[in-house]
Write a structure and sequence with these properties.
Bound molecules: ligand C2E, calcium ion
Radius of gyration: 25 Å
Strand content: 15-25%
Structural class: alpha/beta
Order of helices and strands: EHEHEHEHEHHEEEHHEHEHEHEHHEHEH
CATH architecture of the largest domain: Alpha-Beta Barrel
Shape: elongated
Strand order of the largest sheet: 6-7-9-10-11-12-13-14
Oligomer: single chain
Number of strands: 14
Distance between the termini: 38 Å
CATH topology of the largest domain: TIM Barrel
Number of domains: 2
Helix content: 40-55%
Length: 394
């Protein structure tokens, strides 16, 4: 896209610098350029009831009054669907974290440029602009459901696992799949977990879903293994379920009944809350491990006291959280964190998994760091059983 059709806003306190940018935009064919001397003024313009929505804001960070950071926060809070180009002379680390901050505020960052900006640079950044689609970070994603609706869906067995492939980083071969819950809603189509997991956990109903997933996942695993593919399947376990000391026995019975060796099943545990009854949880996990199940520490690096979990759970896999893996090639701090996690997994003699591998660069990076396995959109998106069976055959 060129500057021509865009509604642009330059936010910069220095009148000379501002003029410079405005002139360049006009040189690039822009016909609608607005100017603001600080964040407050910019915000007033954006909030103006009758004004045309701004497509791209070119924004300085350091400004007296409301600075660029606060401006971006308000823009995110108001849910204006802006793209932003930051004009600044700050160092790389600060700019990288401003980039993350913008993403968290639901703002898309087209780029960061050092002042003074060049014409070609500006042209390149603007050409990267495309209107945010409705799937963007601000969309409310899914309809909201009541607990009763979700439970009704579970009783009607409308929930099924989608499978996301895990591949060996060295050989590129498929080694397993993670089962991710999906609700095939009669009206809303396929609904993702964030619409129902928390609801089920908080109301003490998560086990119903867990076992529905487990049964289907192990039966799928059995099916593809019978077809000659040596795959494992991973199922997500909620921490709250571990309070019940009968859990390990129940899980084992389901797996054996399906004719599957527990060695082909990995249970993923997220440390998203403090363990309420740590003793019970550790008893369950030790028992599962004794029976041969794999245990994975999910979302490693986030949540509560993950280091502590490493020392007390007999786990067999470390799953590095996607927030570290995404863009790992471009960010030195991320690289160091991922590299150290892989290193630690190796020393603990457990399998390392990089989750959220989205691009060729991510893949090349985790591979070169010696990660064992990888999972992410770059390899494949989660898919239903039929598609997964087809995927295995290819
Ligand atoms: P998770 O266990 O960390 O699962 C990985 C999530 O990341 C999945 O989201 C997957 O679709 C997504 N993902 C995979 N590759 C990529 C990538 O390259 N880029 C990006 N941006 N995302 C990627 P999903 O399926 O929406 O699941 C969200 C969470 O819901 C899961 O996170 C898990 O914590 C929970 N969940 C899913 N199924 C179950 C379940 O059966 N039981 C329980 N207790 N929790 C579940
Ligand atoms: Ca998981
Ligand atoms: Ca995860």
């Amino acid at each position: 896209m060129t500057a021509k059709g865009l509604n642009l806003l330059v936010v910069e306190d220095d009148a000379f610098q501002r003029r410079l940018v405005v002139d360049m935009l006009c040189a690039l064919g822009a016909s609608s350029v607005n100017e603001a001397g600080d964040g407050k003024q910019a915000l007033e313009m954006i909030r103006g009831a009758n004004s045309r929505p701004v497509d791209v804001a070119l924004c300085d960070l350091n400004m007296p009054g409301m600075d660029g950071l606060e401006f971006l926060r308000h823009v995110g809070h108001d849910q204006h669907r802006l793209s932003v180009i930051i004009l600044s002379a700050m160092d790389g680390k600060v700019l990288a974290s401003v980039g993350r901050m913008s993403a968290m505020y639901g703002i898309r960052l087209l780029g960061v440029v050092e002042k003074p900006i060049g014409l070609e640079q500006l042209r390149a950044l603007l050409s990267a602009y495309h209107p945010l689609d409705s799937e963007g970070p601000l969309s409310k994603a899914t309809a909201e459901f009541t607990l009763e609706e979700v439970r009704q869906g579970i009783r009607a067995k409308q929930f099924e696992p989608f499978f996301q492939p895990k591949v060996d980083c060295r050989t590129g071969r498929l080694v397993g799949a993670e089962a991710l819950a999906r609700w095939r809603h009669p009206e809303h189509g396929v609904v993702a977990p964030r619409a129902f997991i928390q609801l089920l956990e908080e109301s003490g109903n998560i086990d119903d879903l867990t076992f529905l997933m487990l049964e289907q996942a192990v039966s799928a695993c059995r099916k593809v293994r019978d077809a000659g593919h040596q795959l494992t399947v991973s199922v997500n376990l909620s921490l709250v379920s571990l309070d019940d000391t009968a859990l390990a026995g129940r899980i084992t019975r389901v797996v054996l009944k399906a004719g599957l060796d527990p060695r082909w099943v990995t249970l993923e545990i997220t440390e998203s809350m403090a363990m309420t009854k740590a003793g019970h949880a550790l008893e369950n996990l030790a028992r599962l491990r004794m029976r041969g199940f794999g245990l994975s520490i999910d979302d490693y690096g986030t949540g509560y006291s993950t280091m502590q979990q490493l020392t007390r759970i007999a786990f067999s896999e470390l799953k590095i959280d996607q927030s570290f893996v995404k863009e790992v090639a471009a960010n030195e701090a991320l690289r160091i964190v991922v590299e150290s996690s892989i290193d630690m997994a190796r020393k603990l003699r457990v399998v390392s998994v990089a989750e959220g591998v989205e691009t060729q660069q991510d893949w090349d990076a985790v591979k070169s760091m010696g990660c064992d396995t990888a999972q992410g959109y770059f390899i494949a998106r989660p898919m239903d059983l039929d598609s997964f069976v087809e995927y295995c055959a290819r």
